[in-house]
Amino acid sequence: MGLPLDYAIRNLGRSPVRLGLSLAGSTLVALLALTAAGFVRGMDRSLATQGSPDNVLFYGAGSEESIERSEINPAVPALVEAHVPGVRRRAEVPYISPEVHIQTTVRRSPEDPQNPQVLVRGITPAAWLVHSGARVTEGRAPEAGRDELLVGRLVHRRLGLTPEELGPGSRLWFYDRYWTVVGRFESAGSVAESEIWCPLSDLQIATRRENLSCVVVTFDSPDGFDNADIFARQRLDLELVARREQDYYGALARFFAPVKLLVWITAVLIASGGLVGGLNTMYAAFASRVREVGALQAMGFGRATIVKSLVQESSLAAAAGTFVAIVLAVLFLNDLTVQFSLGAFGLAIDGVAVLLGIAAGLVVGICGAIPPAIRCLRLPITEALKAA
Amino acid sequence: MRWTCVSMVILATSVLMAGCDDPADAPAARRGTDAASTLPAGLLLTAAPPEPRNIADLRDTARPGARVVLRGVVAGRAEPIASNRAMLTLLDAAIRTCDSVPGDSCPTPWDACCEPSDVLARHSATIQVVDESGQPLRVSLSSMPGIRPAARLVVTGKVRSGGEGSLVVDADGIFVER
Questions:
Q1: A226 contacts in chain B (CB < 8 Å)
Q2: pTM for the complete prediction?
Q3: Sign of dihedral through CA atoms B27, B28, B30, B36?
């Protein structure tokens, strides 16, 4: 014969203080799990969505670790168009995007004491072909020759401004001149959202450089990489390397693997503290109910049945705490901007993160109840009935 | 009625079977164009060809179609051997690689990153093994014994392109120096 679920539910209300402590403990543990998972998922998403399977990057040999250090011949886009088969085209326009990537200090004015580093990308209209996830969400695309620029959705965070302060019409200062913000863009959650995009020719004039950082090419199929690699290996005079865009950003993601591991370790350590706190609460809760448990045993309820009921009770409290944590995470943590060396990304409280939060809550509910329940049931029935 | 039912069952079975690809057939169909090639039998030489020349010397004089013998090291970039094409980058042995610099702990010393890139370009050649259409074979030269980054080679072959641009040689013989 089992104890009714109603028994476990009613027991929860017997001590509102203890219930509150249990709720707070499980909420904290689940919230930590959600935050850690949201951080890792957000970072992965920002780097994964940056790379398209059909895109190949041409950049300088010897600059494999960072495109910003790369300098390649400005004739490369034309040479690629002429000699590399399989490049995707639309209305005879090839998907070949010459780009300059520069990490530089961007201020609101020359007197601004802040020194935030932002990646500025010089582009041509072909960038909108190869970076298919990017789109202008506010304002318009910048025009060459007018020192105009587009800001990514998360750039304001890098600059310590509000989105409104960095809207169309505002101005930024870098490379000894003012640039006018004419719009905002997003890029499917990738790190490009913390970049500034401006016309390639304007950036080349401002930086007094003629060469490019890289050329991004979209092929008709992922097999196009072979053609790109043959071209780069045969034209040693161009000092080029061809690499799949996904591989480049995959390598960057691997570079940040220790950071993600550190986040998980920190979350587990703090969550362990929460779990121990929960255990303590449950020990106290069950210790005061030794006589009640003894009475249940005297009435004929088996030990397994009693443990099951106690676990139900603990799990219910943990589930409620987890629910609160999920609501808090979705409302306040989802898409919260986190800055890192490559730019910024938003915490991603997605399905996987929620599942991990629920799992953490369940662990608290089950593991938090079993040891105190066993301790409670260890006493002989006669002694338990006499307990204070 | 019974024949109608039987016909419908046969028709449905045929449609289902036609709609299902045999998974084993799919790669075979693709292999028609993407098949991995095999390297020519006599490509690996057992004796060093005589009178090998430096890449930098050949670079200025070699004309397309000329037969050449050149010596060098599999080096000049982080991945000097292509992973799925019969191509490698050969660098003049005179160019120092990072392992010759005291205290350098570069994980890929053969990329010679301690040398200026224009020097590397001038002293490098692309060695490839091609099919009848002139395309590099779909097989990595690393499948040949002894061919790995930093290996010293003597290569015989025909110049595909040279002069002002880069030196590309269609190899027909490769000797690995021990």
A1: 84-85
A2: 0.72
A3: positive
- Which residue from A62, A223, A236 is facing B124, i.e. has the nearest CB? A236
ipTM topping 0.90:
no
B113 interface with A at CB cutoff 8 Å: yes
CB pairs under 8 A between A and B: 53
Residue in A364, A247, A223, A370 with CA at minimum distance from that of residue A309: A370
DSSP category for residue A331: I
Best of A233, A238, A239, A241 to disrupt the B interface (most B CBs within 10 Å) is: A233
pLDDT at B23: 39
Q: Give per-residue pLDDT as tens, A53-64.
A: 899 999 998 787
Pure H helices in chain A: 5-12, 16-48, 76-83, 127-130, 155-159, 200-207, 224-234, 245-255, 257-287, 290-298, 303-328, 351-367, 370-377, 381-386
Interface check A189 vs B, CB under 8 A:
no
Contacts of B125 in chain A (CB under 8 A): 236
Nearest CA in chain A to B164: A237
The mean pLDDT of chain A is 88
Give contacts of B78 with chain A, Cβ < 8 Å. 61, 64, 241
Tell me the percentage of chain A whose pLDDT exceeds 70: 97
Looking at the complex, does the CB of residue A247 fall below 8 Å from at least one CB of chain B?
A: no
Would you list the DSSP string of B17-66?
HHHPPPTTHHHHHHHHHHPPP---TT-B-SSPPSS-B-HHHHHHH--TT-
Q: What is the pLDDT of residues B125-156, one digit of tens each?
A: 999 999 988 899 999 999 999 999 999 999 99
